Amino acid sequence: MVKSVGSIPEHQASSSSPTGSKRRHDEAETSQRKRLKTFEADLQKKALHAAKVVQGSLQDLDYAAFKEVLIAWRFATNKAISETAFDRSLLESRLLVPERATKPLLDVIKNANDDYATFCDLQGKVMDALPSPSYFARPDVWPVAQAKHGAILCLRPVEKRGLPLSTLHDVFRKFRTRLNAPFLRGLLQVQLFHGQRNLTTFSEVLFVRIRGNQAKDNAKVAAFLLHGAPMFLMCLLGPIIFVAGGFYDGSSAIVEPLAQPCFMLIDETDRREQELARLLYAVDQGLEELKCMSRNRPPADFLPGVPRLYSSCVLFTQPAMAGWCPTAYIMEYLGSDWMSLFEFERKADISTSQDTATLKNAIWTALEKILTFMAEEDIVHGDLRSNNIMLQVNEETKPVLLEAGARANLKVIDFDWAEKAGQVFYPTRRNEDIKIWPACSGSSIDVGHDRQLVDSWWPTFLAARSGWA
What we know:
Strand content: 5-15%
Shape: flat
Radius of gyration: 28 Å
């Protein structure tokens, strides 16, 4: 992982010798490495214990219908116990639930799936654990760590890339704008002096995996992490300096250069000084913005990792045509003129608003179009209940009809379970008070399940309103 600095406040130079400072630095680094190794060892023990629990539960599940899953399950747990690497896809395996299984068998399978889910969560953390920053930089460690699922997305290798930082946080967009803005000359009298390498950091990224819940006790650190931990990484190599940005989107650390390398050397034309001045000014202003973020919680609608659109946007048309740009997933915002079918059923006065037969047919036509499209694309949603289907209405809460009144305007939301049919599973822990699920928890979401779920609530939805029957 990359150690980061949010900003550097004023400080007094330490009176200790450079040798003593280096010794303390080495001791602190060694202590941190020991804590990390201790944490990883404890995590590995927990994962192995979970694997053994799963292995013990397999003895009672030797059914012919589950043979393939059992083989994969035993292979995964045996690999975990022997502490050797294994295919990550094994962490997605679950026992399938037969349609006519007895309740004792259902209880056994459910408990086994829950045990295996615990093991998968712990084993996944073990597989994704990254070494300490100093150890990470070793040539023999870097390629191995970057091959993991939790690798740093820093374009090394080139396929390890995330979304552009300018779309993830506005501080990076503003940095690039300031970097290219005209800079007046001769206004500042600034002198740079050599000094000690003893700096006190304003913000420090506290790795929860090392310090447990201590980060929650520090309000500044907690707010900083909630913002996605945006940071500027100052990289120095002799007289060369360049600035990169860092961001955590909830699953991966993204690092991207924000400017070209700059030489901190004099120039008879003042060109290098101008470039350095603009760079340091942009960094200074960016750090001031980061200070404000660490003192305040993000707005309620802020989610780290969700791209946002700003007043200015740079389009990389040519790289995109060549397939060199990362894929950006854009979600449509539904305004106040949309409500769920569940809410529409409860609140809207539709008994006399429009011809009931026309309205029923219009909503069903839109539902049928959605179901047909999903079936043709071989994708499943998994939770097509009325609360996850949005209906567009006008100011009088009457449905907006399209195609000369033949079809209502519907949108589907909540795609947490969506995936290719047969490749995604119902959660092992879901609301079992809902009796209309097409299949048991832990089983695969297959073609036809979405239509079956819609068919189960559609007649009730119509009968709930007077004048619709």
